[in-house]
Amino acid sequence: MNPYxxxxxxxxxxxxxxxLKMRLTVRSLSGxxxxxxxxxxxxxxxxxxxxxxxxxxLTAAIRxxxxxxxxxxxxxxxxxxxxxxxxYRIIGFDISKDTHNSAKNLxxxxxxxxxxxxxxxxKAVYETWxxxxxxxxxxxxxxxxxxxxxxxxxxxxxxDDSYPPQKKSFMMIKYMAEHFADHFEFFMRADDDIYVRxxxxxxxxxxxxSTKAHFIGQAGKGNQEEFGHLSLKMDENFCMGGxxxxxxxxxxxxxxxxxxxxLKNLWSTHEDVEVGRCVRKYAKVPCTWSYEMQSILYHNSxxxxxxxxxxxxxxxxxxxxxxxxxxxxxxYRLHSYIQGLNIRSSEAELVHFVRELTKTSEEAGxxxxxxxxxxxxxxxxxxxxxxTLQKWVADSEEEVLYWDFVSKAAFQPGSANPRHKPTSGMxxxxxxxxxxxxxxxxxxxxxxxRVIDFKEVLYGYIRWHPTLALEYILDMLLxxxxxxxxxxxVPVRRHAYLQIPFGPLYIREYESAGIDExxxxxxxxxxxxxxxxxxSINDLSKLHYQIPSAAFPRTQMKPKKIHFILPLAGRFKTxxxxxxxxxxxxxxxxxxxxxxVVSFRPSPGExxxxxxxxxLISSLQLDYPHTVMTVLQANTTFARALALELGTGQCQDNDxxxxxxxxxxxxxxxLDRIRLHTIKGYQIYYPIVFSEFDPKFARKGDSEDNYDHSxxxxxxxxxxxxGYGIVAMYKSxxxxxxxxxxxxxxxxxxxxxxxxxxxxxxxxIFRSADPGLVHVFHRVDCDRNLExxxxxxxQGTRYSTYGASQSLxxxxxxxxxxxxxxRANP
Length: 826
Description:
Layout: H1 35-67, H2 69-73, H3 84-91, E1 107-112, H4 118-127, E2 135-141, E3 153-155, H5 166-180, E4 186-191, E5 195-196, H6 198-205, E6 215-216, E7 219-220, E8 238-239, E9 245-248, H7 249-255, H8 259-264, H9 271-282, H10 293-296, E10 297-299, H11 314-318, E11 321-323, H12 328-363, E12 404-406, E13 410-411, E14 419-420, H13 424-441, H14 445-448, E15 450-464, E16 469-482, E17 488-501, H15 515-518, H16 524-534, E18 562-569, H17 572-587, E19 593-600, H18 610-623, E20 629-634, H19 640-648, E21 656-659, E22 664-665, H20 668-677, E23 683-692, H21 695-698, E24 717-719, E25 727-730, H22 731-737, H23 750-761, E26 764-775, H24 788-800, H25 805-814, H26 816-824
Parallel strand pairs: 1-2, 1-4, 2-3, 10-11, 18-19, 18-21, 19-20, 23-26
Antiparallel strand pairs: 4-9, 5-11, 6-9, 7-8, 12-13, 12-15, 13-14, 15-16, 16-17, 21-25, 22-26, 23-24
Helix pairs in contact: 4-12, 5-7, 17-18, 22-23
């Protein structure tokens, strides 16, 4: 017979757990003596004896029911559990293999969920951290729950998904005790909107004595409105259920037999409060009184907005559990981020092992093991070098690595704008380094009874070697807090000397959410990803073709047409060079393009080359009739915004437009990147172009009219990070952004105005350096009649194109008369 099945009690015993009241009546025996008196006395004694006997029997029966509450609970339609073998099968537990003290039986996690969350939250939990636990996991839901998702689901009979879930919680505790208590050391009660870091949880639990009674969680006494209304004494608490609650085996075994009593004596509607009350009553342990639990079992009070923003936060990095993640898609996002942190941690261990291996080999007089594998592109040998700022020794002046200075402002000698605000990349990298340093500093803080908090970086120096490492020298303001012994809080100032070695190159490809809906075919992004995977990372020529559609079936795929829009005013010789590139790349390469040239009257003093422009275009049109080339004449002075507006008027809403200047050179790879990075209804492509310096400084010995424009290095030019004139977008996105401001006349200003409009419109912007786009040097003459802001921008561009900082410094040092002139004319 099933030991948990209801059995009928002996006849004559009523199973009603109420206190027994025995009444003994003593009568006055006046005038009645003899046999009748003796008979009455014997009857009374017999009644008392019978009452005492029945009292013992009823007391034993009640005690038996208290110790085996499932017998009585079965009368109330509470679960009759499956046999243990079925429970083991559900969670995938093999008694013969999963022995004690193994990595598989440290912890059992019971996740409380509901039928409506099985296909979302429960599935996300199981597919992320649920499979990485040092133990097993099961999801506890109502008796009628159904799902097609492959998860370890336990349906509790007689339990529904009503709220508050007291019955579900207590029955889960009872189930865990009766089926798994002999096979795990710790038991965790969790919700389905929590994220757990299994590696940190295992490290924490290994430091706890599992043979003692423990009730671990974030201690609470109720919020301000509930304080004093939860029937808790001043020194009593409970473990908040959201961030997770952990019991040792001893605690679970002491609480489980009394589930019935705890369910009968509920004082609040809060399930975690009642579990805490039950544990405190029968296991005699409170929830952990520890301030540290607020950070390692972390609850975010932002509600549905929790963990939906940036994840680079101290709380995310320090915590063992994170709660709540209401949207299950953010659980995958958080898991991806945590996995990235684990990869970084593994890489740090790899560096440590390589250094130890190198050092040990040198001390033993053995050759250092060769770790590089050129065939796979993995180079690790430099990781074994000593941690020193002198690991790189320059052989010449040109090889000296300069330091960038960083404080509230940044100074970078190699930048076109040496003094500027710290860039977002610099700030983010510095924040990552500081967070890692503080984790190393506080790694043994608990043992030493102190903690050190970061306040700010007063100043620092940064430099990097292209193949070795990134190096930091930081002057940091810290706050030293001692909480053991004589408590104190003292601000301290410390220098940190840090190195981040470069490892092998990793390439990651992923799909951006929402792109599928913006392409002409739902499977479009998969086509692009497949091409990138099969092709070379340096040759994107296979991306020429757009996604197949009804107009262009797969057997007749054509590249997406790019509409070049080129403003022009005079400068026919430069225009000829541009058309040479256009002919070589687009016309001879049979690219699907269209050219719209918007020609203005030349500036005073320049020759009118309008007829020459039209003649050149007409000649090419005859040779390449399949490519449409148009010239629009504007009978006014040059205004770039007006030129682009006239050019876009020749395009339809679904046309891909490319705004370009006559000073640019480009390659076929540039066209590939335009098609790849410009996505209708979703993304605009702002390429970062390479701008050449004055060849008098950068290319000594080369003819100004005949030099290689494909050369890219810091000596001959710079990346124009703050230029927004070259852009690729669909006409529909231009209209959404608000169009071009044609009131801006002359040079500059219209590109920044359009860029700010795009930012405000919410359309995604993609920026990257495009080595195929080169701005050929030409002398800039700034018209003093320009608006003040335009004139300053023009002057800034003019000054930035003279030459590299180091080249100008060398010129000044070789020509002391320059400094002498400056001193004489301050």
